[in-house]
Amino acid sequence: MKEIVVSVKDVKKIYGKNKEKKTEALKGINFSVEQGEFIGIMGASGSGKSTLLNLLSTLDQPTSGSIEINHQDISQMSGDKLSDFRAQEIGFIFQSFNLLDNLTASENISLPLSLQNASISKYQERINKLTKTLGISDVLGQYPTELSGGQKQRVAAVRALVHNPAILLADEPTGALDSKSAKSLLSTMEELNKKEQVSILMVTHDAVSASYCQRILFIKDGKIGQELVQGTQTRTEFYQEILKELANAEQ
Amino acid sequence: MLLKLSLTGIKSRFKDYLILLSGLIMASAIFYMFETLATNQEFIKQNATVKYAAMIFQFGSVLLAIITLFYIIYANTFLMSMRQRDYGLFMMLGAKKRKIGRLIFMETLIIGLIATVVGALVGVGLTYSVGQLLIGKMDIAPHSFQPFYIPAILITLLFFIVIFMIAALFNRHVLLNTPILKLLNEAEQPNSKKMKLRTILIQSVMGLGLIIIGYYLLSHMAQYQVAGLAVSIVTIFVGTFLIFNSLFSGLVQLLKRSKKFSEKQLNTFLVGQLSFRLGSLNRVLTMVAMLFALALGAITVGMGFSGITDKSVDNASPYDVVLQDPSVKEQKLLGQLTDKKEAIYATKKVGDKRYFKKSDFVKSPLYMLSFTASNMNAGKLSKIDPNNMTTKNEDDVWGNVVRTTLESDMLDPEIVSDKSFSTISAPTRNVHAVRLASFKDNKDTLKSLSQGISQSQVESSTYLMNKYVVYQSINGIFGGMEFMGFFLGIAMLAMLASILMFKILSSAAADKKRYDLLDQLGARHQLMKKSINREIGILFLLPGIVGVTHVLFGLQMFKEMIPDTYSHIAIPFIIFAVLYLGYYWLTVSLYKGIVLKK
Hints:
The complex is a heterodimer.
Chain A: E1 4-15, E2 23-34, E3 38-42, H1 49-56, E4 64-69, E5 72-73, H2 80-89, E6 90-93, H3 105-115, H4 120-133, H5 149-161, E7 167-171, H6 179-196, E8 200-203, H7 207-210, E9 215-220, E10 223-229, H8 235-250
Parallel strand pairs in A: 3-8, 3-9, 6-7, 7-8
Antiparallel strand pairs in A: 1-2, 1-4, 4-5, 9-10
Chain B: H1 2-12, H2 14-38, H3 41-47, H4 53-92, H5 97-138, H6 150-177, H7 180-184, H8 197-219, H9 221-257, H10 259-262, H11 267-316, E1 321-324, H12 328-336, E2 340-350, E3 353-357, H13 358-363, E4 367-370, E5 380-383, H14 397-406, E6 412-416, H15 418-423, E7 429-436, H16 443-456, E8 465-466, H17 467-506, H18 508-521, H19 525-554, H20 570-595
Parallel strand pairs in B: 3-6
Antiparallel strand pairs in B: 1-7, 1-8, 2-3, 2-7, 4-5
């Protein structure tokens, strides 16, 4: 059996303080991600996906339940420990790229290493390999404003992976890209997942993006409803199945 | 309805508006503070010994007006950046352009009015407290100094209302002539221009060259006169700009290349922030550096005048206080003087002669100060050998010293033996001559002595000697100049630091995104705080260093007027540094409050 990198147990999240009206965003979520798995989370707006992602990325704390990433319970951490944990164990890719516009692409990439005071020359080989895989070796000296959307997202992907995190969290990574760039980014993610055994958890509402995953969890009203597994299906078949599931969920 | 909406907009960004308002209030308060002196002709006439003083104030007034204008332009950009999205949204929802135009016009004007009126009131308080502080510290009472001065209030109101009127029209114009889509999309941050190494080198060399020319002209003021001053101001100004534009950006780029530095923690980020900022802040930094130099220069020169006072007091006499037959009360006061050497000389007056005992002079020889052409600024202290005090020539030095130091009636002195002295039939008077290690430490006691003394004089109402009286009269002349220097300096410092603070804070909203992102990437809070401290520290430090250099060389201008121009710079520099640091601290904490999550 493969090692488990993310384990979410009975997680609840309730917004609203004591006297205010309470909203239960997550009503008990259970799932786990194995090492080297590419998992998708789908759901309509307001289903709780963003809340779940915020919890996984340690930016928010669950009201109850536990979240373990790389065997460390993040609901027990606070302050600097959380910061360090994010810096070491988690890689992020966002819809809006979130690159620092005052740093060049290569500076953006080496930032997570600098944060840990790691020697960049030690990682140089990894950086070279990643930038080559993602096809951005030529634009490393440029500032984000000089890059296309696809290039920006690739820079963000390298930055997310450079420090070898336990899990890559992707939030609608193709949301702001044209279909060509989106496809190419997804293929690269798939490649990284297969070749490098990078564990990926991607939140999306786009069926095409989701069809690249091995497994998809559907969230509805704060709970995990359906679960789809690609298994031996081709991507097109899996895509059709996802569309069907989405159509079912609508009714 | 629209008005209500726009008011809600203000309420939701109350904190930003508070920063904006307090900045504008400070500007108007400082402007008022300066105008209380600049428009008060009577004050200038009474307190300035230099005939150019009125001109200096006119010049300062124009300078301050220009600076204030820039300041308000910055503030207005800040206001527009907050509002244009809201108003764009209203327009998109179908609000009429004319109505929106009227709203932004009113908003700008109302904010301006509030700031001006409150600022003038704060200015009265500020002027009063700074005035009191200076008067208390400097032991002077400037004539005709009025914290509440109607002409200054009128000028402040008029100036600011006109400026805000223009700003309001400008904002209205911008809002009505910008496409809605552009209003809705926030302006993208411009790229930092990458300069070629050659351009950096050429500009740095040119900048340094221009500054050196300026320094040279300043140190040869006597030769080049006013034209030299005018040219040097221009060359130093342009040179400073070139330095900020090239040299500092070059240094930042060098830092960036050094892997040893940039690979550590948030250093890359720090350098990235700095190179972005230096690109957009070079004009502001130039102005801040120049103002820094002017402000610090004003305070230093002001303090230099106090140096003249000290020197003149030192040169007045070797003795700090000389009394004849002190009363019980005076004896008590004399006893309070610290670190003193007291000599007592017995004297008897017969006809137009005054007799002294030789033994008194043997016991404590009389001190004298002698001046020659080479040491006009500092008298040479020496003791008179009692054996030489025998000649009776009227031109004898010793005779003059005794006459001026120990007598009030300027009679011819004669030194006799104890035996002869006792045979003279006249009442004995005792002259107490006191030398103090420090005049300043005993100033208050000397002041009390100077008040009680005139009644107790038995033989003559003329007061023998009290340095406090000398101090008082000289301080009256130069204290006014010192007061003006301080006042001017503090007003300018407050203005320049506010400009810098404001400029940094107005970019905080855009920086917040970056810090949020760093937080997400796992940068510790402590690390981000450190990075902020350093970044803002460098932005404060650079114009500070340039300003200090300008002052150090600029003081050459005053070397003829103020003796030992450089001997008094420590105190003004320290005072200035403390105030400047205060502003730095305030800026950093406000900035952190905006960009960092709690």
